[in-house]
Each structure stands twice: as C-alpha cells, then as structure tokens.
Design a protein that fits this description.
InterPro entries: DEAD/DEAH_box_helicase_dom (IPR011545), Helicase_ATP-bd (IPR014001), Helicase_C-like (IPR001650), NA-bd_OB-fold (IPR012340), P-loop_NTPase (IPR027417), RecG/Mfd (IPR047112), RecG_dom3_C (IPR045562), RecG_wedge (IPR033454). This is Probable DNA 3'-5' helicase RecG. It comes from Plantactinospora mayteni. GO terms for molecular function: helicase activity. The chain has 732 residues and is of the alpha/beta class. Helix content is 39%, strand content 18%. The protein contains 27 helices and 21 strands. Helix 20 links the parallel strand 18 and strand 19. Helix 8 packs across helix 9.
Length: 732
C-alpha cells in the first residue's frame, strides 16, 4: 500500500497524479474512489451540465459534420453526442483531423471529458479528451481517442464504468488504467476488522471491497464494496470517540453531590417561574454526574431560549454547595458580560455575599475579561484565588492569564466552543483533579452528527420552550422581485418601535464607513455586489427609512468597552434599533426586541439564521423575522431561506443545513491540509450504519480498551482518523 506510484505507473503519470490529485502511493490511489458509475444506455443528463464545469460525459455519437473555418485555414469537425434523455452536446475539433471523423462514427459510445462552454445557445466541449467503448476501437492517438485508452477501459464497457474525481491533465480513464495496474499488482492489506465482526455484520473482506469498488461486475458487488468501506470509516470514528470516552471515565474527579439545604435549594425557591419538565430532567442527569468520582463530560443542547442557562446555573450552585468553584466560559466579552449580569439578576441577594444587601449564606460572582481595568481585574482575581467567588464568568482568557482558582470543580463552556486539548490541559493545571465539564449549544444537532462529532460526550436535550416565550413568525422579503415589500418591511419595523418595542437589523459584513455609494454597490468579478455592511447600512437607514429613530451600531471590531456600552444602552431601551453583525447571534437577551430584519439573508447559513431569529420574541410580545434577499425563486439560496421561514423546528433545520453543507466539513476533512480517507460515509444516509458501528465499538473497547489484541485495526484507525483529525473532533 505504501509503494510509490512511480514504480507502478511510470514517472510521468505518477507526477501528474501527485501534482493534480495529491495521489502518491498505491494506497492513495486505491482509496481514490469513483465519484459515480455510468452504464451504456443510461444517460448522464447533459441538460444539467453547467457552463464552466469540467465534466466527463458518457454519450452516443449521433452525427458528424465537417465545415471550413472562416477565420483561418483548415476544417472544423462538429460531432453531436446524445445521452438518451434528449440532451445533446456538440464536440468541436479544430484543424484537419480526418482520422477523428473515421473514429467518431454515429452509433459509437464513448466517454468525453472537457470544459463546458456555450456557443449560440448550444452546450459544447472544445477539443475534448475522449475514449470510445465497445467494438472497433479506432486507431486514434493514445489517451485522446481510441487506441490504448480504449483497451484500458474495455473491460468496463459491458458493466459499470467508474468515473473518477479527475483533473484536465488526468482524465478519468487514465485514473482507471492506473487503478487497474495497482489492483492487479499490489498485495492487498491485511483485513483489520475482526473475522467475527465481519461475519456478524455480513461484511466482505477489505481486499474484495477495494477491488470491487473500482471494478464492480454488478450493482450488487458495488453495494457490498461501498457498504464495507463505509463501515471502516464509521467504525474508525466511533472507536476513536469511544476510546476517548473510556479514558476520560477513568480519570479521578472530586465528587460534588447535591446538598438539600444549600444555595441550590434557596435558588429554586426564589425562581419567579416553574422549571419545565425538560429542565428538571436535565437537572437530575447533571446532578447525578456531578456526584460521581469521575469527571462529567456532558453536552446540553436546546433551542434558543429553552432555558439552558438556568440548568447551567443550577449545576454551578450544586458545586458551590459542595465547596468548589464553577467557571462559565463564553465565546465573546459581550456575551460574558451579559451572562454575568443575567446571573446576578437571577441570584439576587444569593449572589452578593459580603455586600450590605447580600445573603450571608450566598456566594459571590466575578467577571474576568481582557478589557477589565487593572484595579478591577486585580480585585476580581483576588476573590477567585481566595475562593470567595464561587462563580466566575469570563472568556477563554480565564484559562490562561494568571487566573488561579482555590478549588475549580465545574467548567461550563457556552455555545459550542468545544472543549479542546489545550483548554483541557490548561484547566487540569488549575485544578488538582480534572473538573466536571458541561458544554452548551443552541444549535440543534442531528442525532448522527451528535453521535459522530460529539460521541465522547453524554448528551442532554431541552426540547420545550419555557412558558411565556412568544412564537416567532418568519417571512422572506424578495427585494429584487418586489422592492415594495422591502419598503413595507421598514414600515413594519417603525410600527413595532411606535408600539414601544425594539428591533435588530443584521448585515453580513462590518464594512468601511468611508466607502462611497459607488463602492458599496460595485459589482465583483463573480457578478455579485459585495455583501451589505453595518458601517455602510447604518447611515443610509438613519437618513432614509428609519429617519428619526435612535440607531446604535454593534460589531466585532469595536473596542470591548464600547461593545458592552452599546449592548447596555440597547438593553435599557435607550436605542430603538441595533444595526449589527452576527455578534448578536449568541446569547443576547433583550425581551423588548420584537422584530429582526436580516439583510442579504442568503449570505448566512441555515443554523446562523435560526440562531439570529432567536434574539426576538423573548418576551411576552410575538417576534417577527424578515429575511431580505435578492435571490430569485427556485435557486438553492432562495429554497434555503424558504425552508428557514417555513419552520422553527431547529432539528429539521439542522438536517437541512447538513444536507447543504459538505459533510467533510462536519467530520473535519477540510480542516487540515492532509487528505482524509473519510470519503463515503454520509451522516444523513448512513445513520443506521453509524449506530451499528457505535454498538460494535463500545463492545470492542470494553474488552480491549487500547486495541492491543487488534494491532491491524489500531493501525487502520490511526490511518483513517489521524491525530490532527482526532483533535479536530475533540474540539468540534
């Protein structure tokens, strides 16, 4: 498998495979799986080809025509090929190439590769590479029509023809020829899967799977090969996660059992509302975890506004009752400051021990962020080091810059900033034993993603919203097709402000305040104008449709104290409208805000839009989210927005998001420069297979935690999920 390709396919071809497709060894090539399989008589759907695409088409020659060229000497050969669906494509060859006309006889089937262009409304390929299939393979030049290339692919002509991810310099049939050499000469690797597992799960051997995925004699063979190779990917991932979970469960931790007469009981008694059934159930799970002698590693997921923060605060109070401290890490200073104020409000006198109006049996809260003044920071750090502050809120700076805890018992990580290797090491240094960890996210995670990406954590889900939360209506505003709808959106915002409410206007970019109107609307090379920006939109709104309203601006480039000041002013009702970037996506809680207008909504992801609209409807008045777009009907961008507007079910939207994103992004395949072997597994389509792999991984790790009795399997897992990728999975 490690044999260099130059020893197998020659120096020139190996160099092309390495430089264009990053394939260097026999193993690399065997794991370069076909993108699809064509059959003669089945169409490729020529009508769906897009101009500019590099394509490989299976088609049948319908007719040929030779005519003299106008601008220069010589003839032009035009060949029309069809795909059986009614779609046709013109192949054009310049110069006197009579042998091609003899080669490309009507009725012949071939594979044609090139870049799609358009001439007078017709799709065409100029001078494409091609290989002909079947009888009378012609006497063309090797690799560019008939001859040697045809021989190489002849064995596929009656069955399934693999079409590989290719490059202009390395067409699919060259890859097929190289794969054939490798399959015929390289000794297949030892099968890493235990024989009993293969038998139980009815899986073919690895050597058979690698041969049949490239040269399937039937669809049944192809299915078996793909199923086995998907198993390898799913099993490697699950073994990695189950092993990590197993190792973590062996670490010692200080138990923090619940005390019946402590702060938590007093806090529950003063809550102005009843906990939902979901919050109570999550509370029981977390309380049980905290009481054990091993560190809790739990993910708490719940819709925006489902009450995760209250669950986290109750867990923190349980730890404080048991003599420890708890830290909440937020992704931004704005959010850290907001959590701090929100917790102070919820705790009341219980969070102000040592102050005149504080409860002597309570605790103290400390806020530690990078922008604190020197004196305030020193005071905060002293209360943390002395153990006087039972609850500490801050950004990830908490883990590093000279912050010492007296007895750190619980870390709550807010908003899917997963707990990475460096953070875990930094925290271990701050606690005599690893602390308990609770990770919170408001982005609903489809079950298979949770199992695959967060598989080393226990998962709790809050699915119901607390009483008193209002529904959010969402509508798409098609600004290009119906400009009057956008005017109505601004009027609707003014109506909400007139009724005493507040609004958000969200833009995809921060922008430059000094930009001219021409620069703002300039069309880029891709034919689109730049995304709308806060710095440019805010003054236009102030002078135009929102004239006379009190408008504030919030984005990530503002100094921390200014961001905090803007948020406080908005929360206090002293601003009517906040024009912001996605800095408001997470955790911003202003119950009086009832309307949100998202400009260039098609430039945001599904999860982002769902998160953003969760900022409105947080009080007793209904929320309204207007998604403004220039995307026209029936485009993917518009369909995505229509889906967001049609449902507030975060789990349904999370699956839609996954369908539309490359799944490799979820698995970390694109996060490093190294190639990933995670190629076939689909988190959506293969959910059952992933569940089965999880079951087998748990069973195997229980009996052989470090895979000592399965060295080939351990090596296979290391190859499929390298250290960099394992670390990515851990950080999320």
């Amino acid at each position: 498998m490690e044999t260099p390709l130059r020893k197998l396919v020659g120096e020139k071809t190996a160099k092309a495979l390495a430089s264009h497709l990053d394939l260097h060894t026999a193993g690399d090539l065997l794991y370069h799986f076909p993108r699809r399989y064509d059959e003669r008589g089945e169409h490729t759907d020529i009508r769906s080809l897009e101009v500019g695409e590099q394509v490989t088409v299976l088609g049948q020659v319908q007719r040929t025509a030779v005519r003299p060229m106008r601008q220069r000497r010589g003839n032009l050969l035009e060949v029309t090929v069809g795909d059986g669906s009614g779609g046709v494509l013109t192949l054009t060859f310049f110069g006197n190439q009579a042998w091609r006309e003899r080669d490309l006889k009507p009725g012949r089937w071939g594979m044609f590769a090139g870049k799609v262009t358009e001439f007078r409304g017709k799709r065409q390929l100029n001078g494409p590479e091609y290989v002909l299939l079947g009888d009378g393979s012609g006497d063309g030049e090797p690799g560019s029509g008939g001859g040697e290339a045809s021989e190489e692919i002849e064995e596929f002509a009656g069955a399934l023809i693999p079409v590989y991810p290719a490059a202009a310099a390395v067409p699919t049939w060259v890859i097929a020829r190289c794969v054939r050499v490798v399959v015929d000469t390289v000794t297949p690797p030892e099968d890493p899967l235990p024989a009993t597992l293969r038998a139980t799960r009815n899986l073919v051997g690895l050597a058979t799977a690698l041969r049949e995925i490239h040269r399937p004699a039937s669809k049944e063979e192809l299915y078996r090969a793909r199923h086995r190779l998907k198993w390898d990917e799913a099993f490697a991932l699950q073994l990695t996660l189950v092993q990590r979970k197993h190792r973590a469960s062996a670490w010692p931790a200080q138990p923090r059992p619940r005390r019946e007469d402590g702060l938590l009981t007093a806090f529950d008694a003063r809550l102005p509302y009843e906990l939902t059934a979901g919050q109570r159930a999550v509370g029981e799970e977390v309380a049980a975890d905290l009481g054990t002698a091993h560190p809790m590693h739990r993910l708490l997921q719940g819709e925006v506004g489902s009450g995760k923060t209250v669950c986290a605060l109750r867990a923190m109070l349980q730890v404080v009752d048991a003599g420890g401290q708890a830290a909440l890490l937020a992704p931004t200073e704005v959010l850290a400051a907001q959590h701090y104020r929100g917790m102070l409000d919820l705790l009341g006198p219980l969070g102000r021990a040592g102050e005149l109006d504080g409860d002597p049996d309570g605790t103290r809260l400390a806020l530690v962020t990078g922008s604190l003044g020197a004196a305030a920071r020193r005071r905060a750090l002293e209360t943390v080091a002395a153990g006087e502050a039972g609850i500490v809120v801050g950004t990830h700076a908490l883990l590093y810059e000279g912050v010492d805890f007296a007895d750190l018992g619980l870390v709550v990580v807010d908003e899917q900033h997963r707990f990475g290797v460096e953070q875990r090491d930094a925290l271990r240094a701050k606690a005599e034993q690893p602390p308990h960890v609770l990770v919170m996210t408001a982005t609903p995670i489809p079950r298979t993603v949770a199992m695959t990406v967060y598989g080393d954590l226990e998962i709790s889900t809050l699915s119901q919203l607390p009483r008193g939360r209002s529904p959010i209506a969402s509508h798409v505003v098609p600004a290009a097709e119906k400009p009057a709808y956008l005017d109505r959106a601004w009027r609707r915002l003014r109506e909400e402000v007139a009724a005493g409410h507040q609004a958000y206007v969200v833009c995809p970019r921060i922008g430059d305040q000094s930009a001219t109107a021409e620069e703002v609307g300039a069309i880029g090379e891709d034919g689109r104008r730049p995304p709308l920006a806060v710095a440019e939109v805010a003054p236009l709104l102030a002078d135009g449709p929102l004239h006379g309203l009190r408008i504030g601006v919030l984005h990530g480039r503002l100094p921390a104290d200014e961001k905090d000041s803007v948020m406080r002013t908005f929360a206090a009702g002293e601003l009517d409208v906040l024009v912001a970037t996605t800095v408001i996506e997470v955790g911003v809680d202003v119950p009086n805000a009832t309307v949100m207008i998202v400009l260039d909504a098609d430039r945001f992801g599904v999860s982002q839009l769902h998160q953003l609209r969760g900022r409105v409807g947080r009080g007793s008045a209904a929320g309204l989210c207007l998604l403004v777009t220039e995307a026209v009907e029936e485009t993917p961008a518009r369909e995505r927005l229509d889906a967001v507007a049609s449902t507030t079910d975060g789990f349904r939207l999370a699956e839609l998001d996954l369908e539309q994103r490359r799944e490799g992004d979820v698995l970390g395949a694109t996060q490093s420069g190294r190639r990933s072997h995670l190629r076939l597994l689909s988190l959506l389509r293969d959910s059952e297979l992933i569940r089965d792999a999880r079951v087998e991984a748990v069973a195997l790790v229980e009996e052989d935690p470090e895979l000592d009795r399965h060295p080939a399997l351990a090596a296979s897992v290391a190859a499929l999920v390298d250290e960099e990728r394992a670390e990515y999975l851990e950080k999320g």
